[in-house]
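Provenance and format

Records in this collection were gathered into a single text stream. Each protein contributes a sequence line and a token line. The two records reproduced below are adjacent in the stream.
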Amino acid sequence: MKKVTISALQKKKKRGEKITVLTAYDYPFARLADEAGIDCLLVSDVLGQVGLGYDSTVPVSLDEIVHHTRAVLKGASRALVVAKMPFLSTAGSFDKVLDAAGVLIKETGAHALEIEGGEEILLVVEMLVQAGIPVMPHIGLTAQHFLRTGSFGFQGSTAESARRILKLAVDLQEAGAFAVMLECVPGEVAAIMTEKLTIPVIGIGSGAGCDGQILVPQDMLGLFDKFVPKFVKVYRNLSEDIQAAFRQYKEDVQSGSFPGNEHTVSMKPDQLEELRKGMEKGE
């Protein structure tokens, strides 16, 4: 299959073809998603919760994103790989922001960056794009919003708030964003945005009217059950299968049935005899 590029994603929107995106944090998941034909892999700071056991995305560091992006790139031979700028890495002077962005792009090989926020990220997006770095902003529900309000409620549910989100999306497009990720807004608002923008709108919990969808594999595969968003479709419950395998392994070890002869490498009889004779002689 051909390598997926930003241009290819934008052409999909023009043709009315849906775009598929998954988060990925390691080589095995990246390889499996890539081979399944997923268009884009996002190394998101949700890594903090589903991969590192943090209570939120806030503690995730730039070094952790770099580490996991490198692993994902090794497993993705065709998918577009986007790395997330973690919390506070887009705050402060532009030189500081550019340094962080440069680390992610140059040290990992990521193809683009995700930046989340509201109106405050407009200038950052514009300056990064001017510096030659493709950017996909993440708007709607964000971790920063949770810190300010303490809730993960839907955004854009009133006419006034919906207008603000729509305006922000248009402004981000004008700032040079190649796509927009839209989280937890009413489907009607997402559909209007998708029709209004010329760049792809990737939805998560924002209805079927978007140009594409993104999910977290740990959610959709039943591997993370501390909190499963309402909009997630659980395609498999692998936690039960994995735990069953672990319990069977424990029982097999305790009973002595594992490892059996079929799982053990044996010496050739003549070599074993030579070893025993040598030991008897004290060699």
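Adjacent record:
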Amino acid sequence: MPRTVTLVRHHVADFDAWKKEYDTATPLQQANGLRVHQVLRSAEDPNDVVVSHTFDSSEAAHEFMAKPEIKEAMNRAGVKADSVKTTYYSEVDTEKLAIS
């Protein structure tokens, strides 16, 4: 079964405050099957954030994103609720390239 990657794009009031709150969620992420995550910040707007989360299944990804604790953490972190866009993707290929 392919892994599922969620991409969550949102606008935050203050990136540094958001990141501090995001980092406190590590235990919640680990307890709910998060395998890999990546935080991306727009070069043009430092408060435009994209987060990718990789899970073993679509069910795990959807269950995690539906948790009330996630919405509460986003509120505490200053996420502008009307800016949140979450998309789900099935992983097709992942490769680490050797750098010579």
